[in-house]
Amino acid sequence: MAPVSIVTSQAGAVIGHDDAMRFLFVGDSMTIGRAGDVTWRYRMWQHLESCPGLRYEIVGPRSTLYDAEADAPLSESYADPAFPPPARRHLSGWGEGWLHLAPVIADAVRAARPDVLLVSLGLIDLGFYTDAEQTAANARAFIAAARTANPRVRMVLLPVIPNIRAATDASFAASCDHFNELLAKAVADLDTAASPLLLASRPTGYDVRADTYDGTHPGPTGEHKLAAAYADAMHQAWRLGGPYTARPAQAGSV
Predict the structure, then answer these.
(1) Which residues in 207-233 are b (16+ Cβ under 10 Å) and which e?
(2) What is the mean pLDDT of residues 138-166?
(3) Residue 189: which residues within 8 A CB-CB, separation 6 or more?
(4) DSSP string of 71-101?
(5) The CATH homologous superfamily of the domain defined by 21-238
(6) Which DSSP category does 5 fall into?
(7) Which residue of 90, 199, 248, 249 pairs with 187 in a disulfide if CB–CB is 3.0 to 4.6 A?
(8) Gap between the Cα atoms of 113 and 110, Å rounded
(9) What is the structure's pLDDT at 13?
């Protein structure tokens, strides 16, 4: 890949350089994926590959999928075996949320040296561990901790997206909506010129019946919509990369 030239946002902050941009995926079960999944991380890798002139690297301490039989993140069985091992790296876990990753993000950022964190967390927290206020407090702690390791790290945060429990449980839906409001406030409060924060838009038209395989975890169309939320946010706000265009997995038609 050719070197990327310096790119600036409208505010003038440098968002590209002659070294590779380093991306770290941070998430829960929707991000790690299970054995046999394509994952939205794969779709994002395809997008980064398609951006002319962009030198990038995907970093992180983990690379596996969740193995349901072992109930552990042990699987290497990605749906497309051509997904390069270096591009499989991430910091995500089945059943892990802001509560679990806030205490470890500083060490991960220090070790992997990412420029950009692509974060999808919150649903598992609200579903099993914490209420909206405590979940938002953990998100703020995560941001602060990441910055202790890299004061210039950028973050793109995804709100909690539609899910089957919210579709059938009004009180849980209200909790998700309240957390999303608190997350938006955290992004507004904590955004800085040195360490910019973006709140990605919830994927347009995301349908738990069509875009997931079980009401929560993304299927092929959902994977594309999640990747697009991040890609389009970075392109629109930072002019990084380009608009998202869905591409089929190399091993099949999904």
Answers:
(1) ebeebbeeebbbebbbbbbbbbbbbbb
(2) 98
(3) none
(4) TEEEE---S-TTS-GGGG-BEE-TT--HHHH
(5) SGNH hydrolase (3.40.50.1110)
(6) P
(7) 199
(8) 6
(9) 41
